[in-house]
Design a protein that fits this description.
The chain is 43% helix and 15% strand. It is built from seven helices and nine strands, in the order αααβββββαββααββα. The strands form four sheets. A three-stranded antiparallel beta sheet has the order 2-6-7. A two-stranded antiparallel sheet has the order 1-5. Helix 2 crosses helix 5 and helix 2 packs across helix 7. The longest helix has 29 residues. It starts with 7 loop residues before the first helix and ends with a helix.
């Protein structure tokens, strides 16, 4: 059956929808429903992930090439023997300890720069205690394609399973003398990724608007 190419205006409506998805899922996450990170991952995949069979929305619009993507992840230092969670911090207090996506409230010294897509997508943002490494791409595709975003696989890659099920990153919280592993580093990391891509799209659209006005 013949196919009809979507117009630029149709693609822009898709972009507006996906920006809305990011905002709605981010608000739900920030309200305490951290499982919403799976839908954030799926939206991010639609926006930026290209394969031989499917094209990203930002790519179809011609925005992705040369666009700056906001990088707020600490750089991984191989000399550091501790595990690395470059996108998120630890929140202490209130009788609980959890991972925390800082969004714009970045700790001193944290990167806050725009980089080209390959550097952003493939930057290592988590290294666990077993020295398994995870970049943004691996987190987004695992959550969206295999772990409940758009699909559930019957089996998961061992490294990802160790990270998300077995606390291979190694952090333990002690509350009232009871120790428990800290969980969901991948979900909080995706929330920070979503913040970065949202700001990146805003910046790109602002530049386009300024150019059109000029």
């Amino acid at each position: 059956m013949p196919k009809v190419k979507q117009s630029k205006q149709e693609l822009l409506r898709h972009l507006a929808d996906n920006i809305g998805f990011l905002k709605a899922s981010s608000a739900a996450f920030d309200g305490g429903y951290i499982g919403e990170a799976k839908r954030l991952a799926t939206t991010i995949r639609v926006l930026v992930h290209d394969t031989t069979h499917s094209k990203s929305l930002l790519g179809l619009l011609g925005y992705k090439l040369g666009m700056g993507f906001l990088d707020t992840a600490n750089d991984y230092d191989p000399k550091n023997l501790m595990s690395h969670h470059g996108l998120v911090g630890l929140r202490l207090g209130g009788g609980a300890t959890s991972y925390w996506a800082p969004l714009a409230d970045l700790p001193p010294g944290r990167p806050n720069r725009y980089v080209l897509f390959p550097d952003w997508w493939n930057k290592v943002v988590i290294v666990d205690s077993l020295k398994a490494k995870f970049c943004r791409r691996e987190l987004i595709l695992a959550l969206s394609n295999k772990d409940g975003g758009a699909h559930v696989d019957p089996a998961l890659d061992e490294d990802y399973s160790n990270l998300t099920r077995n606390n291979s990153i190694g952090w333990i919280a002690s509350v009232g003398g009871v120790e428990a592993p800290l969980s969901d580093v991948e979900l909080h990391s995706v929330r920070q990724i979503a913040y970065g891509i949202g700001k990146s799209i805003e910046r790109k659209l602002s530049k386009i608007g300024a150019a059109n006005e000029g």
